[in-house]
Amino acid sequence: MLPNDPVVAATERTRLEAGGGTLRSFALTAEPGTIDLGGVMVPTWTYGAAVPGREIRVRQGERLRVDVSNALPDPTSVHWHGLAIRNDMDGVAGLTQQPVVAGKSQRYEFVVPDAGTYWFHPHVGTQLDRGLYAPLIVEDPADGAAYDDEWVLVVDDWIDGTGSPATTPDTVLAGLRRDGMSAMGGMDGTAPASASEPLGSDTGDVVYPYYLINGRLPIAADSRTVRAGQRIRLRLINAGGDTAFRIGIPGVPMTITHTDGFAVEPTSKEAILLGMGERVDAIITVPPSTTPILAIAEGKTGSAQAVLKVAGSSLGDTGGALAKLAASVPFDSARAAAVTAVRLSQKAPDVRHELVLGGPDGQYNWTINGRGYDPARGLPVVQGQRVRLTFTNQTGMFHPMHLHGHTFQVRPTDGGAGPRKDTVLVLPGASVDVDFDADNPGQWLTHCHNIYHGEAGMMTVVSYMST
Questions:
Q1: 384 Cβ contact list (under 8 Å, min separation 6)
Q2: Cα separation of 255 and 143, whole Å?
Q3: Cα(416)–Cα(414) distance, rounded to whole angstroms?
Q4: Alpha-carbon span 87 to 270, nearest angstrom
Q5: Residues near 74 by beta carbon (within 8 Å), at least 6 away in sequence
Q6: Domains of the chain by start residue, with CATH
Q7: N or C: which end of the chain has fewer CB within 10 A?
Q8: Are residues 404 and 339 in contact, defined by beta-carbon separation less than 8 angstroms?
Q9: For the segment 327-382, what is each residue's pLDDT rounded down to a tens digit?
Q10: d(CA 147, CA 160)
């Protein structure tokens, strides 16, 4: 079934009729430029000369129109990460659309079906690991009852435009293909996950010089002036290319309310583990004095921070708080429980697909079921089926596996009601089962959201078949 199949258009018409279709229009320009990370100037590619790009905010059920102009020297696209939209708007160059060539533009238009915290980025080569990303917030009419304000925080690892000659993600990938993980100082340990190493001992292939929150280094951290006692909804997004983050606030518990946009039973945690592509919403109560929000690069050296500024106090040394956070046991959002309203109905799967994650070999090839990416050899499903995917990780590194066009329900080993997600951490040597309903026809990428693993082959396609 092709992305422009009449069934895809018919599914979109059903969404339009259900949502009312109020049109919200935005313009977006992808362009090269030099940006300030907070005392460090870097040449990179951005949306609208800012990192992150300007937030897009709409309401559930509205029709979103975004006119994208490509002022880059290379082709690009825009993928709307986490949204179950029409297939021909998903933004995967070579699968759901032709890339937008330099000097040209494309209109993306679709109904936004689900409220939550989402984001957008290219799906062409390694462009994700530049500055081309921005939040997409879909508001629920019921939002706001449990909190007073909100703050969107995008964490990222940064290498683009650093060094001399300037490094780009393309040169990073070329080095990995040429020399293996040692090319970028990548790790090669194979110890399994543990309380002290929740992702195992191999936590990345790339050593990044900087880590950011909202495009800023810790020395020039983004900040928000708040009042003690305020309830703030934090919308946390990991836009990193190769880094998971351990996020916490000294002395302030975070009540997790959503994972990847969908509500979970509220869970209070001191620290959250956020893989690449994942999002978590959490509500906090502002403490009496100025406090940092800390994001440690998991298993690497470095961190990022943002600051909750309370009048009459200043930010002190964060060394002790970083050490305490590093010694904590962070919470993986895949262990949360979906609220009843968003759980899938009880039903046995109609079709099962196992995705065995493998690699890398000497040429830095990462695989699914022993093969690199081939869109012609996908995972067949039929409209209306309950589908179970089993991600089995035979590698020594964790993989945040992302499914386009759907949210799945994680099936915990204890048989509980796991969260609804579109990206899930699969730890070394582990398997994760997820279920979803095949209700959004088309060709849908599923892949590791480590950009270098995906581009080196760890991708496949969930392929709807015509009946």
A1: 437, 438, 439
A2: 16
A3: 6
A4: 38
A5: 102, 124, 125, 127
A6: 6-141 (2.60.40.420), 150-162+209-335 (2.60.40.420), 342-464 (2.60.40.420)
A7: C
A8: no
A9: 999 999 999 999 999 999 999 999 999 999 999 998 999 999 999 999 999 999 99
A10: 37
List the strands of the sheet with 431-437, edge to edge. Answer: 367-368, 351-358, 386-393, 431-437, 408-411, 420-421
Lowest mean pLDDT among 104-118, 265-279, 299-313, 408-422: 408-422
Q: What predicted TM-score, i.e. pTM, was given to this entire model?
A: 0.96
Helices (H) and strands (E) counted in the chain, each on its own, are 4, 31
Identity at 264, one-letter amino acid code = V
Question: Which residue type is seen at 370?
Answer: G
Q: Which of 379, 364, 384, 352 is nearest to 445 (CA)?
A: 379
Average pLDDT over residues 22-45: 97
What pLDDT, in 10s, does the model give residues 440-459?
Answer: 999 999 999 999 999 999 99
228 has pLDDT over 60 = yes
pLDDT tens digits for range 136-185: 999 999 899 999 999 999 999 999 999 999 999 999 999 999 987 654 44
Token readout for 27 is 């313009």
Show the DSSP H helices in 260-385 as ranges: 319-326
Spatial contact of 206 and 241, defined as CB atoms under 8 Å apart: yes
Strand order in the sheet with 459-464: 379-381, 459-464, 443-448, 399-403, 423-426
Q: Cβ of 137: how many Cβ atoms within 10 Å?
A: 20
